[in-house]
Amino acid sequence: MGRIILVQHCQSEHHINEMSGGWTDTPLTELGRRQAEIIAKKLRDGLDSSEYILYSSDLLRASQTAEIIGEQLGLDVNINKELREINTGYAAGKTKEWASANRNPRTGSSFDLDYQEFQNGETWRQFYRRVCDCLELLYETNKKNLLIVTHGGTLAYITAWWLQFSEQMLGTAYFSASPASISVLTRNAFNQNVLEVFNDSSHLSLLN
């Protein structure tokens, strides 16, 4: 096992109704479901699903994406709460306007790993450690390749974990993917961890 396919969840209600992200739990839109179906068909045609185990965040926008993919690939969805987006504390379920007005003040203009954006939420350092701990466990306990449906921030930090970023390196680099995109992490003949594909959304042209 040396391959991880990452799918960023498809369009969710929070994308179109001015709600904040993070732990706000909203379902897929109709467009989001169509996006998930296209991703599922692409994956079905491009890989041997018997070589993969499917994991998903428990938040609706990810788990509903994963259910559509799993149905096409004949895979059960293994729900893992640790694959959630960063914990936004009291901002969960609130509007973007509320979040903008109620986030904790920053102490500087540079990225701060220990900044807690919202009361009762996670810092970025806590978030990264959660993601790393989760992926270490999944990677070590599964003999099959991993297919993971998750969120933008989580996908970025899974990628950073794969490339063995130190916490300090997170201050100067980030991996920004898009909803309904596919990324692929592999290993090469030199036993190096490789970011083979990132933020591939070419399949979405089928929506036009």
TrEMBL record:
Assigned keywords, A-Z: Isomerase
InterPro entries (alphabetical): His_Pase_superF_clade-1 (IPR013078), His_PPase_superfam (IPR029033), PGM_Phosphatase (IPR050275)
Active site residues according to the UniProt entry: H9 (tele-phosphohistidine intermediate), E85 (proton donor/acceptor)
Annotated residues for binding of substrate: R61, K96
SUPFAM superfamilies on file: Phosphoglycerate mutase-like (SSF53254)
Signal peptide per UniProt: none
UniProt xrefs under Pfam families: His_Phos_1
This protein's record includes keyword Methyltransferase: no
First-tier enzyme category under EC: isomerase
E.C. code: 5.4.2.12
GO cellular component: cytoplasm
Keyword Isomerase: yes
Gene Ontology molecular-function annotations: phosphatase activity; phosphoglycerate mutase activity
Protein name: Putative phosphoglycerate mutase
